[in-house]
UniProtKB/TrEMBL annotation:
Coiled coil: none annotated. Residues 38-57 bind DNA. This is TetR/AcrR family transcriptional regulator. Keywords: DNA-binding, Transcription, Transcription regulation.
Length: 209
């Protein structure tokens, strides 16, 4: 069965072409939004033949899916500070800096808007966040082992709780959240987790007894 367009990880010249095309696609998204993303325009910006772009990615949504996959691969690894709160603050700081970056913040707004009305973009965005949550979930799991958080704490839910208010602030105000908002989000998620708000399954039943 042939691979879906944009999913094969190439090397050599093909890798350089992919990098140039993805960079150009990200630029268009950041500058003009999803509605203006056009494969021919991306090919022109990347100085790549249109045939190459159409053959490799097939569609705008295929290109966006590959861009998100690349962004997930290039994202920074989690920070280990030795405490759950320290790790969650590091995560919140990373999200805040990303959303405050002129290019990255605009790019995420464009992709989130597209995901609201395009199923393939929505799935690609979910995969992106699945990768990022899986990267940071161990900081919560390790906190459970150290006794900082109750047994049964849903690590993924805690990580989502850190970034959720930051994205909400960006999308509802149009203004990127600042460092104070990042610190507040991390402290709120930690306090809720320490109080057992994110305990599920067997751990939740143990808390009730």
């Amino acid at each position: 069965m042939p691979a879906e367009p944009g999913t094969v990880r190439p090397g050599g010249r093909t890798a350089r072409v992919r990098a140039a095309v993805l960079r150009a696609a990200g630029d268009v998204l950041a500058e003009q939004g999803f509605a203006h993303l056009d494969l021919a325009d991306v090919a022109r910006r990347a100085e790549v033949g249109k045939t190459t772009v159409y053959r490799r990615w097939g569609s705008v949504t295929g290109l966006v899916a590959d861009l998100l996959a690349d962004m997930a691969e290039q994202s920074l690894h989690r920070t280990q500070t030795g405490s759950v709160l320290g790790d969650l603050r590091a995560n919140a700081d990373l999200v805040q800096r990303t959303l405050a970056d002129p290019r990255q913040g605009a790019l995420f707004r464009a992709v989130i808007a597209a995901a609201a009305c395009d199923a393939r973009t929505a799935e690609a965005l979910r995969r992106f966040y699945d990768v990022r949550i899986a990267e940071w979930a161990p900081c919560v799991e390790e906190g459970v082992v150290r006794g900082e958080l109750p047994s049964g704490t849903d690590a993924a839910a805690v990580v989502r709780a850190v970034s959720a208010p930051l994205y909400y602030a960006l999308l509802t105000t149009g203004t990127p959240p600042g460092p104070a908002a990042a610190d507040r989000a991390a402290r709120a998620a930690f306090a809720a987790a320490a109080a057992g708000v994110y305990v599920t399954g067997e751990g939740h039943r143990e808390q009730d007894t």
